[in-house]
Amino acid sequence: DTTRYAYALSQIDTRYAKEIKDIVTSPPAEHRYETLKKTLIQRLSTSQEQRTRQLLEREELGDRKPSQFLRHLKGLAGTAVPDSLLRTLWLGRLPAQMQVILATRQGDRLEDVAEQADRIHEVNDRAVVAAVEATSTEKTTLQAQIEALTKQVAALTTQFSQERKRWRADQSRSRSRSRSRNRGHTKGFTVEHCYYHRTFKDKTRKCEEPCTYKAIKPAKPENTEGSC
């Protein structure tokens, strides 16, 4: 017995050794191996109900109706889980607002409660669909408004650009005309005056056609009293 006990201890994984620490530190005087084996089985094994419960606790409602989910849990549980535990597990997986409503039917058959849960589920689904459609409509309207504003901004930008180009063209033509006028006048003489008149004015006796220069005649002196 002592040999078997010592060999068993040497084969136990360190993860499980802490579960039998009390036996290792204070082994019984007799039947050490049997005591060790029974204690390991008792402390490390779980019952069928516990294993089934762990399995069921991982299940989720998903897109199933509550009654469908209940039948699914029953199929997994079999006869290992009592109805009271199955009821608790099933209700715990339903939406919170549905749990509040169904909590008032503790004494009713589970199948009847599942039927009511289906009706609540259908109402919630319709409400969700309506909310999604409303949100979609609002989104479409908002998108249309954004597109309209974008087009208006683009049109204003184009108009501003065109007006700016016209303004620059007008300014350029205005400067060009101003330079032409300045070049066409030399101290009061236009380009229609010939070279001699532009250069020598009244002092010249020469003239080249075409020339529109007209000499400025000196004013005649006024007659004074007593002149003859």
From TrEMBL:
Residues 164-185 are annotated as: Disordered. It holds the Pfam family DUF7041. It comes from the Eukaryota. Residues 174-185 have a biased composition (Basic residues). Residues 1-57 form the DUF7041 domain. InterPro entries: DUF7041. Residues 164-173 have a biased composition (Basic and acidic residues). This is Uncharacterized protein LOC112455266. It comes from Temnothorax curvispinosus. The lineage of its organism: Eukaryota, Metazoa, Ecdysozoa, Arthropoda, Hexapoda. The gene is LOC112455266.
